[in-house]
Design goal:
It contains two helices and 23 strands. The protein has 410 residues and is mainly beta. It is globular, with a radius of gyration of 23 Å. 9% of the residues lie in helices and 30% in strands. It has two domains: 36 residues, no CATH class; 344 residues, Sandwich (Jelly Rolls), CATH 2.60.120.
Length: 410
């Protein structure tokens, strides 16, 4: 969302549907026959005039506890693999199950929502607590990652959604035994594989300097990169049209701490088929004659710098990421945009490889010839926080409108 334009939320038509539906992991409540008996845990509203169950999907099903008002710092345990890195314990990781998590906290000023969006230290652009493989170890400043296993990935806590954005990767440990790949990926990109493995990510390989997309290596950086190198990324995405953000999130407790749970975006069959575009008939694999071609973002690109020197444009025409090109598979309204879509800077590590994301403003090798409209990645964090505050207020207003409709229907 551009910082130069006011936030003008799109008005939602609260009377456009006969009923509101809200799906959790285990239940979906819709209209019912007059004589059907309902479980009290499923009923969170009153009957409407049309004898449908009307659910105020915004109302939480949990109440406050004293611990909710305390500052929460995720519990860290030192890694036995490297004492400079930590294991973050007792948090819900975003996985391929189709759900994503973010911190929330009590907000008594929101009479119906009761909880608002929050964050965890270090309160800036960094690697995410939740969007990384559980097999990775993270540094105390949440900017570096490593592992003692095979290829695993971690991505940042905020995405790039539009405009020109610059950031750097500091290569800390990359050698003959330990490796690093760096790049950008969408929410659907696997964090249990290196960036560039699938159709949802674009990556660079350390040893050969090859660029990777759909696991297909292409020559790009002649000498590759190694420990001590600084690789700058300039990502350019076209301006996005304003979309109504529908978060459909619910406050939950996990290990006695508060989080919002919402549907995540999962890979589609068409996009996954791009990795191996053949159709198998018995024992024969026949190449697709008319392969699926995803829509792309015009004038999008990823430009690469090595130690401050321009290397070239690694990728152009990145795949589009807004609905209908991303889907929440488990959601009734699978084409919702919940505000988390975009391209995320991503680090992939192998057997002791270490890389650090540098969001700015203290870059090591920022080029002098960047255009004035290029943003530094860290600037997006405050924009994201402002957006979350706005959408919390909008959700509260909509919740009040829905509740008024429910009360008037009784």
């Amino acid at each position: 969302m551009s910082s130069t334009e006011p936030v003008i939320p799109q008005k939602r038509n609260l009377e456009s549907e006969e009923r509101h539906q809200y799906q959790t992991r285990s239940t979906t409540t819709t209209s019912i026959p007059n004589n059907q008996q309902l479980d009290s845990h499923d009923i969170k509203a009153l009957y409407s005039k049309k004898k449908n169950i009307v659910i105020n999907k915004f109302k939480p099903i949990i109440s406050y506890k004293p611990i909710d008002f305390e500052q929460f710092n995720a519990p860290l345990a030192k890694s036995s693999f490297d004492p400079n890195f930590h294991i973050i314990e007792d948090i819900p990781f975003n996985t391929r199950r189709g759900f994503q998590y973010s911190p929330c906290r009590p907000n008594p000023d929101l009479s119906l929502l009761k909880f608002s969006t929050s964050d965890l230290p270090p309160f800036n652009a960094s690697l995410s607590y939740f969007d990384r493989s559980s097999g990775t170890f993270i540094s105390g400043d949440y900017n570096s990652v490593t592992t003692d296993k095979g290829w695993l990935s971690a991505r940042t806590n905020i995405p790039i959604q539009e405009g020109k954005v610059y950031f750097e990767f500091n290569i800390v440990n990359s050698n003959e035994q330990s490796h690093v790949r760096i790049g950008v990926g969408r929410r659907e990109a696997s964090i249990e594989a290196p960036i560039g493995f699938d159709a949802y990510g674009y990556g660079l390989r350390d040893k050969t300097g090859q660029k990777l997309h759909l696991s297909r290596p292409v020559k790009f950086m002649k000498e590759g990169f190694k420990s001590g190198d600084v690789i700058g990324f300039l990502v350019e995405l076209p301006k996005t049209e304003f979309q109504d953000i529908v978060r459909d999130q619910i406050a939950i407790r996990y290990k006695n701490r508060l989080y919002f749970e919402r549907f995540d975006y999962t890979p589609t069959e068409k996009m996954e088929h791009l990795l191996n575009p053949v159709t198998v008939f018995g024992e024969k694999a026949i190449p697709d004659l008319n392969p699926f071609k995803p829509d792309f973002l015009p004038n999008s690109s990823i430009k690469i710098y090595k130690n401050g020197e321009f290397i070239g444009t690694a990728f152009e025409d990145l795949y589009a990421f807004l609905p209908p090109y991303s889907e929440q598979k488990n959601n009734i309204n699978k084409l919702n945009n919940n505000g988390t879509l975009g391209y995320y800077p991503t680090v992939s590590v192998f057997k002791g490889g270490i890389a650090e994301i540098n969001p700015g403003p203290n870059f090591k090798c920022k080029p002098n010839d960047l255009e004035p409209d290029v943003k530094e990645f860290h600037e997006l964090y405050n924009e994201k926080i402002a957006d979350d505050v706005v959408w919390d207020i909008i959700d509260e207003i909509e919740a009040e409108a829905i509740q008024t409709t429910i009360d008037n229907s009784s």
